[in-house]
Specification:
It is globular, with a radius of gyration of 16 Å. It is α/β, with parallel strands linked by helices. 44% of the residues lie in helices and 25% in strands. The N terminus is likely disordered. The N and C termini lie far apart (43 Å). The protein contains 10 helices and 7 strands.
Length: 207
């Protein structure tokens, strides 16, 4: 049980070699469908400034850069292992001001008000200690008419996973919808999808 709890905690905040060599590449493969749907709903353009909260292995950030070429791609993660990997991977782009990588949490975004045009998060919100505060921070950091896209595995699918009792909150899409509305978002949509691993949802909201 202790071993399972340890690995479950790693899912929320990877450390050391597990984060660098195991979880980052694993997330890039297993969450590809969720990331691809998120990218489609973001509708990125070259003038956008994007923040990815809980970027993990960096698949979404990398794909956004190579397909949509936004003006800025920023990533935030609570894991120093993930942040160090990304800083090393994009050191040239970081020096050029095209990429920003920060250590931090959704509840206290280390960015100014109205700094981004698009903010997303994939399979991260159910690890946040305070999702309501995280959504308020997203609202604060978005420019007017900016778009937030939150994608995560449905609770029904999570309950079938071995790590469910240890690390993740059970978040129903309708509850997240209400939290977005409470934070001030409008035009909130819920898109349902699935892949071979799980059922998931994508919530799209506008400031």
């Amino acid at each position: 049980m202790k071993t399972l709890a340890y690995f479950a905690r790693q899912l929320g905040k990877p450390t050391g070699w597990i984060g660098k060599w195991v979880l980052g590449p694993l997330w890039n493969r297993r969450n590809r469908a969720l990331n691809d749907l998120t990218l489609a709903e973001l509708e990125l353009t070259p003038t956008d400034r994007l923040l990815d909260i809980g970027f993990g292995g960096g698949y979404l950030m990398a794909t956004a850069r190579t397909t949509a070429h936004p003006a800025l791609v920023a990533g935030l993660d609570v894991s120093s292992a993930m942040v160090q990997n990304a800083q090393k991977r994009w050191r040239t782009e970081i020096a050029a001001g095209q990429v920003v990588v920060q250590l931090g949490s959704a509840e206290a975004l280390p960015f100014p008000d109205v700094h981004f045009t698009k903010i997303c998060s994939v399979n991260s919100i159910f690890y946040w200690p305070d999702p309501q505060q995280g959504l308020r921070e997203i609202y604060r950091a978005l420019r007017p008419a900016g778009r937030a896209v939150l994608t995560f595995t449905r609770p029904e699918s999570i309950r079938r996973k071995w790590f469910a009792p240890y690390a993740v909150k059970s978040l129903q899409p309708e509850a997240v919808h209400d939290l977005l509305a409470d934070a001030g978002f409008q035009h909130i949509q819920i898109v349902s999808a699935e892949d071979q691993h799980r059922q998931f949802v994508c919530l799209i909201a506008v400031k």
